[in-house]
Amino acid sequence: MRSTLGWQAGRAGTPLRRTSLERRELRADDVAVRVDYCGVCHSDLHAVDAHTGAAPLVPGHEFTGVVTDVGPEVTRFAAGDPVAVGNIVDSCGVCAMCRAGQENFCHEFPTLTYAGTDRHDGTTTLGGYSREYVVRDEFAYPLPAGLDPAAAAPLLCAGITVWEPLRALGVGPGTRVAVAGLGGLGHLAVKFAVALGADTTVISRSAGKAGDARRLGGHDLIASTDEHRMTAARDRFDVVIDTIAVPHDVAPYLRLVALDGTLSHLGHLGPVTVQAADLLVGRKKLSSAGSGGRPATAAMLEFCARHNVTADVEVLPSARVNEALERLERNDVRYRFVLDMSDLPQNH
Ligand SMILES: NC(=O)c1ccc[n+]([C@@H]2O[C@H](COP(=O)([O-])OP(=O)(O)OC[C@H]3O[C@@H](n4cnc5c(N)ncnc54)[C@H](OP(=O)(O)O)[C@@H]3O)[C@@H](O)[C@H]2O)c1
Ligand SMILES: [Zn+2]
Ligand SMILES: [Zn+2]
Fold first, then answer.
1. Most C-beta atoms within 10 A of its C-beta, which of 71, 125, 177, 335?
2. How many helices (H) and strands (E) does the chain have?
3. What pLDDT was estimated at residue 11?
4. Bridge partners of residue 246, in order along the sequence
5. How far apart are CA 257 and CA 106, in angstroms?
6. Topology (CATH level 3) of domain 159-287
7. What is the CATH number of domain 2-157+292-343?
8. What are the Enoyl reductase (ER) domain coordinates in residue numbering (predicted)?
9. How much is the pLDDT for 53?
């Protein structure tokens, strides 16, 4: 086994602790990655809050770093290559979804980067809040030159999660898009929609984010608490991307969807109650998405390099991980924390 350092959750409510972790020896198709930057996703917060302690939890599923070692069958990477890794690290490779390049929907369930189960040895996967990660080469992506590695890390979860539905829903010039919730996912949804040529509006609880919405390229911000404006925006958007991180009523957001338009519910992934009449009137569609397949992830990174899209990040030393989680909980970040892992020695 290879030994590294990382940040492990204790019981819910207790701070993450710096711990020594074991990584597997490289399989033939593995690469070892020195993790340099790992984004802090709201899903990490959900996982830490729900943690029972039954299995070890090291969060982190959007990171960038450098390849340090490769298994004998790896041809795509060599030591020294900059790479990015997201929230899926393996899949069956043979089911219809995998063959269609939608490994995120693998019939055997993709192996998640943390709190997943390794397909070969049955161990619980430990995430990117650590100095080293060992990953199957197919699930590492070359990080395009020109993308800042800290600001690019959040593309691998927040980015791809909004990219796939925007592309699948055909968002392009002239599409009217609304993004509900201006956080990690939301601000990247705005940047992507704008770069794709869509007419993009933010729906937020916080009217104070209007300046940011415009700076990100949005045309407008509607405060979700402003009943007058919410009513006036009825049937206005072809696509509504809902990234709100808490359980909420989707009816006010469905009302904003145009005839034959779609609400893509990407945020809090619990049960959703919908009145059929809210879909019936206007033939509206309710959809969801999560993560992305390998082809879409590679295409997104290429798009980001071409259009110079990365996240707006606040970089903190990894030792301040608990502060990052606590501030994320309070919605006190614009718009993604990224942990700088260089405070964890590589060979400890
Ligand atoms: N589908 C997937 O595969 C996938 C992938 C990653 C994350 N997620 C989930 O997506 C959600 C967003 O993640 P994130 O990392 O973008 O989180 P985030 O940075 O915290 O952003 C979430 C946004 O939701 C809004 N919000 C938060 N609390 C709210 C409340 N009480 N009422 C109404 N709005 C509230 C806020 O926007 P305003 O201040 O603008 O209102 C906030 O900025 C999380 O639940 C996360 O677990 C899903
Ligand atoms: Zn995530
Ligand atoms: Zn599969």
1. 177
2. 11, 17
3. 82
4. none
5. 30
6. Rossmann fold (3.40.50)
7. 3.90.180.10
8. 13-339
9. 83
- Residue 110 CA to ligand 3 center (angstroms) comes to 7
pLDDT at 283: 98
Alpha-helical regions (H) of the chain: 42-50, 96-99, 149-152, 158-168, 184-195, 210-215, 227-232, 251-254, 276-280, 294-307, 321-329
Whether 2-157+292-343 shares its CATH topology with 159-287 is answered no
pLDDT in tens, 37-87: 999 999 999 999 999 888 899 999 999 999 999 999 999 999 999 999 999
Which protein residue's CA is at the shortest distance from atom 45 of ligand 1?
245
- pTM for this predicted structure: 0.97
- Token pair for residue 122? 């049955």
Mutate to test the pocket of ligand 1, among 179, 200, 205 (most ligand atoms within 8 A of CB): 205
Identity at 158, one-letter amino acid code: A
249 CA to centre of ligand 2 in angstroms: 22
Whether the CB of 330 sits within 6 Å of ligand 1: no
Domain spans in the chain, listed from the N-terminal domain onward: 2-157+292-343, 159-287
Of the candidate ranges 7-11, 90-94, 262-266, the one whose mean pLDDT is the lowest: 7-11
How many angstroms separate the alpha carbon of residue 96 from the centre of ligand 1?
31
**Sequence letter at residue 22:** E
DSSP string, 147-201: S-HHHHGGGGTHHHHHHHHHHHTT--TT-EEEEES-SHHHHHHHHHHHHTT-EEE
Q: Which two structure tokens, joined as six digits, stand for 91? A: 């899949």
